[in-house]
Write a structure and sequence with these properties.
This protein is an alpha+beta fold. The protein has 3 domains: 85 residues, Malate/L-lactate/L-sulpholactate dehydrogenase, four-helix barrel (Hypothetical Oxidoreductase Yiak, Chain: A, domain 1); 172 residues, Malate/L-lactate/L-sulpholactate dehydrogenase, NADPH binding domain (Ribosomal Protein S8, Chain: A, domain 1), CATH 3.30.1370.60; 41 residues, 2-Layer Sandwich (Wheat Germ Agglutinin (Isolectin 2), domain 1), CATH 3.30.60.50. It has 10 helices and 12 strands. α1 crosses α2. The mean pLDDT is 93.
Length: 363
C-alpha cells in the first residue's frame, strides 16, 4: 500500500489529543506532540508518530507517569541532576534543556544529567533549542541494550545517539544528529515495514554471524557499532556509545549498560538495575563565553562554505552539511504534507478509535 499523506496541522492535533487522553496536561501534550511532529517533518520517520503507539503501551504497562514531578535534585551554578519521575522523555528533556540554557545564560555553560526518564525522541530537537539563544547545544541519551561491543556477541549498549548544534550567520546552522551504531534501530523498523533486507554490516545474529534480516532484533540478534568490525573502527563507536552511556546513565543515576529499560512494553524490564529509568545528558554553551557571537557565526559561515565547495566524487552528488537534508524535508513536508506508512497509519487509526477521537476518519 502507498503512504498516506497527512497535513501537519491534522497530525499535530491528533497527536496532542492522544497525549491528553493518556493523562498529560495541555502543556505537556503540546510539547510531546511537537517533538514527534518535528521528527516527521525533518524526515526522521522512525522517531515521529510511528512511536506514538509505543508510548501508549508504556503507559498501560505502568512505565510512564503522565503527570510527572520533574525536579532538580542536585545542582551547581553550571550543572544539575534532574529526576524525570518516569515522565515522557519527550517532556522531561525539553524542560531540562531550558534549565541548561538558563544556566548558560548566567555562567556561560549549562549541563544537565537526567535520570528516571523515558525515550526522548530525536536528540536534535533538544539540542536545537540552543540555536534560539545563539548558543551551541548538546543532547544525548542512553537506550536499551541492542548493540554488541567490539569482540562481543552480547547486547550491552543502546544506539546511544549524540546531537550537537552550532549557530551560523548567513548560512544555515550546523545540526549533527547521529546514532553511534552503523544504523539506528528505527531504520530496521522502516526496512521491516517495507519488506526490505538490511545492508551487510548493520547487524549480527545471536551466534555472532552477519544478518540481513530487518527483524533480527526480534530474533535475539543485535546491532553493530559504527564501523561494524575492528578493521573498520568499530572500537571507536564502542567508545562513543560508552561515553554517552556514562554521561547519560552512570553520571545521572539512571540505568545503564544492559539494564536500560527497553522501549517495547512487551519486553521484560531488566532485573536488578543499578539506576532508575533512561538517562539523558544535555548541554548548552554560550558562544560569547568564548568569543564574540558575530565573529564565531561569521567564521562558521566560512567553514560551512568551505565544506560545500569541496570537490565532489560525483558531480551529481554535492557535499552536504549536517542538518541540510533535514531542512529540505521540512520545507517540502510543511508544504505537501507528511507521508505515513500504511502500517503506521493503521496503528494511528486504532488509537483514534481507542480514544474515541474521530480525528483521522476524514484525513
Amino acid at each position: 500500500m502507498e503512504n498516506r499523506i497527512i497535513q501537519e496541522n491534522t497530525l499535530r492535533f491528533f497527536t496532542e489529543n492522544v497525549f491528553l487522553k493518556m493523562g498529560c496536561s495541555q502543556t505537556h501534550a503540546k510539547l510531546a506532540a511537537d517533538v514527534l511532529i518535528q521528527a516527521d517533518l525533518r524526515g526522521i520517520d522512525s522517531h515521529g508518530v510511528a512511536r506514538l503507539v509505543g508510548y501508549v503501551r508504556l503507559l498501560e504497562a505502568g512505565r510512564i507517569n503522565p503527570q510527572p514531578n520533574i525536579r532538580i535534585i542536585h545542582e551547581t551554578p553550571s550543572t544539575a541532576v534532574v529526576d524525570g519521575d518516569k515522565g515522557l522523555g519527550l517532556v522531561v528533556a525539553p524542560i531540562a534543556m531550558e534549565w541548561a540554557l538558563e544556566k548558560a545564560e548566567q555562567v556561560g555553560t549549562g549541563w544537565i544529567a537526567i535520570k528516571n526518564s523515558n525515550h526522548f525522541g530525536i536528540a536534535a530537537y533538544h539540542a536545537m533549542k540552543a540555536l534560539e539563544r545563539n548558543m551551541m547545544g548538546w543532547a544525548m541519551t542512553n537506550a536499551s541494550a541492542l548493540v554488541a561491543p567490539t569482540f562481543s556477541k552480547q547486547r550491552m549498549l543502546g544506539t546511544n545517539p549524540i546531537a550537537f548544534v552550532a549557530p551560523a550567520g548567513e548560512e544555515e546552522d550546523f545540526v549533527l544528529d547521529m546514532a553511534t551504531t552503523t544504523a539506528a534501530n528505527g531504520k530496521l523498523e522502516i526496512a521491516s515495514r517495507q519488506g526490505q533486507l538490511i545492508p551487510e554490516g548493520w547487524a549480527i545474529t545471536k551466534e555472532g554471524t552477519s544478518s540481513l534480516s530487518p527483524n533480527i532484533l526480534k530474533e535475539d540478534g543485535m546491532l553493530l557499532p559504527l564501523g561494524s568490525d575492528i578493521i573498520h573502527g568499530s572500537h571507536k563507536r564502542y567508545g562513543l556509545g560508552s561515553m554517552v552511556d556514562i554521561l547519560s546513565g552512570v553520571l545521572s543515576g539512571a540505568a545503564f549498560s544492559r539494564w536500560v529499560p527497553p522501549f517495547p512494553a512487551y519486553v521484560p524490564m531488566p532485573a536488578n538495575a543499578p539506576g532508575e529509568g533512561l538517562g539523558h545528558f544535555l548541554g548548552a554553551m554560550r558562544v560569547d563565553a568564548f568569543q564574540k557571537a558575530e565573529t564565531f557565526k561569521s567564521q562558521m559561515d566560512i567553514w560551512i562554505r568551505s565544506m560545500k565547495e569541496a570537490i565532489p566524487i560525483d558531480e551529481h552528488q554535492k557535499v552536504l552539511i549536517h542538518g541540510e537534508q533535514e531542512r529540505v524535508f521540512e520545507a517540502l513536508r510543511k508544504k505537501q504534507g507528511i507521508p505515513i506508512h500504511s502500517s503506521v497509519w493503521g496503528q494511528l487509526q486504532e488509537l483514534d478509535q481507542k480514544f474515541t477521537l474521530n480525528i483521522l476518519q476524514d484525513a
